[in-house]
Write a structure and sequence with these properties.
This is Glutaminase. Belongs to the glutaminase family. It catalyses: L-glutamine + H2O = L-glutamate + NH4(+). GO terms for molecular function: glutaminase activity. The structure is a single chain. The chain has 312 residues and is an alpha+beta fold. It has 2 domains: 172 residues, Beta-lactamase (3-Layer(aba) Sandwich); 128 residues, Beta-lactamase, CATH 3.40.710.10. It contains 12 helices and 7 strands. The protein has a 5-stranded antiparallel sheet. Strand 5 and strand 6 form a beta hairpin. The longest helix is centred in the N-terminal third of the chain and has 19 residues. The structure holds glutamine. The site of glutamine has 11 residues, from loops.
Length: 312
């Protein structure tokens, strides 16, 4: 019966939550000063089924900035606006094996390695259509909101903080601008990128966003079609190969799910045809992913046999 299943899932989420709450490894990101203000003890786990039911444990309604977990969803918009070939003429589809803020660009073309590292995400943001930067950001916010199934907003303090401390992203954007890699003006593109990273979400939102990808582009809570099944397939492929940066290979080995981390402690994962997972805990590991989020996702994937290459 559905109630029984619901009870089993919720109690398993509670077990994982209670076991990992004592894990205090890692550190809250502080290279963006405003992020250092986060409460390191927060921990939320949410799972959204394709029937639209959300199972939750812990701090699943606490707002945090989406950061790099925005990248797959903005990539979906660039794909829908420009098509796969036009997007990948400007950004690669190869795991970089490097950190999220790596400055490595392809020799000759100036293309960043993939749309999940900062350089590639800045190019992706520049590919979103719009007459002005306002219109481009409005379309990004609408896309993130449609994935989440509610109207999202921007944390202006984090936006200001990112913009003030974003020298490395600024350097990356100017390097790519000089190589002809960007599809929109450089300062506007940076502001749009900083703004997209500063959109507020909850673990519950990330679960619904992940479930919308798993569900072939139809949000299972609102029943709205957000994007095509083909775009979801492309997005989840890039998440699977590149979503966890220099931990991507080991992540796929151990969790086996398309996923994306963010430096505020969010983690979104999709189990195609099954559900979406949203995790939040601000202490990060060396690759910039939530320590508890990574362990929790791996436990869930193992317990429920979720690896995308799993064959019973
Ligand atoms: N806004 C962050 C940055 O550009 C996003 C990085 C991340 O979440 N990995 O540095």
């Amino acid at each position: 019966a559905p109630e029984k299943l619901s009870g089993i899932v919720t109690s398993f989420l509670d077990v994982v939550h209670d076991r990992l709450i004592t894990d205090t490894r890692g550190a809250v990101a502080d290279y963006i000063p405003q992020l250092a203000e986060a409460d390191p003890n927060l921990f939320g786990i949410a799972l959204c089924g394709l029937n639209g039911h959300v199972y939750e444990s812990g701090d699943t309604d606490v707002d945090f900035t989406v950061q790099s977990a925005s990248k797959p969803f903005v990539y979906s918009l660039a794909l829908d606006d420009r098509g796969l070939d036009a997007v990948h003429a400007r950004v690669g589809a190869e795991p970089s094996g490097e950190a999220f803020n790596s400055v490595k660009l392809e020799a000759g073309t100036g293309r960043p390695p993939n749309p999940m590292v900062n350089a590639g995400a800045i190019v992706t943001t520049s590919l979103v259509r719009g007459e002005s930067s306002e219109e481009r950001f409005a379309r990004i916010l609408a896309r993130l909101s449609a994935f989440a199934g509610r109207d999202l907003s921007v944390d202006e303090a984090v936006f200001d903080s990112e913009r003030e401390s974003g020298d490395r992203n600024r350097a990356l954007a100017y390097l790519m601008h000089s190589a002809g890699s960007l599809a929109a003006p450089v300062t506007e593109t940076l502001d749009t990128y900083f703004r997209q990273c500063s959109v507020l979400v909850t673990a519950r939102d990330l679960a619904v966003m992940g479930a919308t990808l798993s569900n072939g582009g139809v949000n299972p809570v609102t029943n709205e079609r957000v994007t095509s099944a083909e775009t979801c397939q492309h997005v989840m492929t890039i998440m699977a190969t590149c979503g966890m940066y220099d931990y991507a290979g080991e992540w796929l080995l151990r969790a086996g799910l398309p996923a994306k981390s963010g430096v505020a402690g969010g983690l979104v994962a999709s189990s195609p045809g099954e559900f979406g997972l949203g995790l939040f805990s601000p202490r990060l590991d060396a690759s910039g992913a939530s320590v508890r989020g990574v362990v929790a996702a791996q436990r869930l994937a193992t317990r429920f046999g979720l690896h995308v290459l799993h064959r019973p």
